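REVIEWER CHECKLIST
Item 1: Sequence provided? yes
Item 2: Single chain? yes
Item 3: Sequence as submitted:
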Amino acid sequence: MPDGPIDCAPPTLPLWRPPDTAHDSTAHHRTPPLAHALLDAPESTGPTPTPPPDRFLEPTSLTDKPAFRHSGWAPLRARVANALERLRVSPRRISRFNHCGENYWILRHHGDPARFRLCAETCRDRFCVPCGQARAALIQSNLLPHLADRTVRFITLTIRSNELPLVTQLDALYAGYRALRRSQLWRAKVDAACAFTETTYNAGTHRWHPHLHVLTLGRYIPVLLLSKAWALATNGSTIVHVQFCKSTQAAASYVTKYVTKPLHPSCTHDPNVLIELIHALKDRKLLLCTGQARRWRLLTKPDAHNWQIYASLDELRYLVTIEDPLAALVLSALRHGDPATSEFTLALDDLTPFTDLPP
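Item 4: Structure as written out by the authors:
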């Protein structure tokens, strides 16, 4: 079986895209059950896009498609959905959250027609764990090239513990970080910085503990001087930590640990705590790039413009069952040709080529 791209005939399937529900006047009538129903009932499937005529005669719905994507955090997902309902977020956001990962699409490469990959319609909500993991992987892949052969340090900035609401503490933390970046010490020592927000909750004291994990490029900063500068920026908070990064692998581990992690386990057990967290993080940036890092474009997918929707996964399933030879080639390319499909390989487990593939 080939490991690389395979040679196959031009596609017989027309290129098509899912309907744009943003401009669909009937979209609100197809809104799924309220998010809190996730606590008591299995997930319902979302609307199935209209297939191309004459090619998709007997579609088979993959009702279990979201199961593997969300199986690792199903109880927490139910609590998050309940919190979004209680906060009265938009029905569109709840719908996207509920149906994250239900519809899959086969993408074909513009420059190499024998390359295919599998993608899913995802909610991209900051409180969706799988979407957060995908975002973290994207940031990491875009960030690490900028750290190669550079002097990297990890800085943790924490404000003094208090009983104020989380939104007030986050405002103070962000204001303090802005003031610190304007200080003479920071401007002299730091060339680039990427700050990641993390929030924890102490159930014993009922206090929030927001802090920033900052990855910096630049020169050595004495901890004592940094602590004094942070105290001036925050009106009294002196807790800082500085750690030298010994290798690019250490930087990768740091980014993986802290990037895009808004849902700390300490904040997810009490529904009221979770609601306060979601409310406090509304419209707030969790990744702050300053200095040279402003130009790094960490959230840009490097080759997104090279791929075009080719067909749906439901259609591929049906074509396999009717022994369409092109479907077998596409399936082989998905399984062996492009590593970008690794996140969704479980969706292909029940698809088996029906004929011998070319050598």
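Item 5: Key structural point noted by reviewer: The chain has two domains: 21-126+304-348, 131-285.
Item 6: Recommendation: ____
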